[in-house]
Amino acid sequence: MKAGKHLAMLTVCAAVLWTSRFGPHACSTLPAFTSETTSSWIAITVNGLFLILLLYLPVYDLISLLTYKLGWETKFDPLVVYEGEHSTQPVSPKIRRVLYVVDLAIVGIFMLPLWTKAAYCG
Predict the structure, then answer these.
(1) pTM: predicted TM-score of the whole model, two decimal places
(2) CB of 36 within 8 A of CB of 114?
(3) Are 117 and 30 in contact (CB under 8 A)?
(4) What pLDDT, on a 0 to 100 scale, did the predictor assign at position 51?
């Protein structure tokens, strides 16, 4: 089921990228991102990949929780994240929740407007 969760995670991230065009970020309300007015395919690709990277952990864990709650899996299997390079201790659930909030705040405040400007206003 792990491969299915990864594919579902990528599908959700692609849906977020596509539906961002309908969000509250219109081209006229994004003057702060002036460097992206002449967007190239490189800027669009980098912004999209960075957005997917930031959404990876919370979306994967949400899909894992949903598959557990729906009874498709016998246990909740979140993505294992380690604290340091040489650490074998995974990040605690409390720190994980803080990471989710910070991660989603960065996506909502900075990355989605930047992606919208690069992809749809360039």
Answers:
(1) 0.74
(2) yes
(3) yes
(4) 87
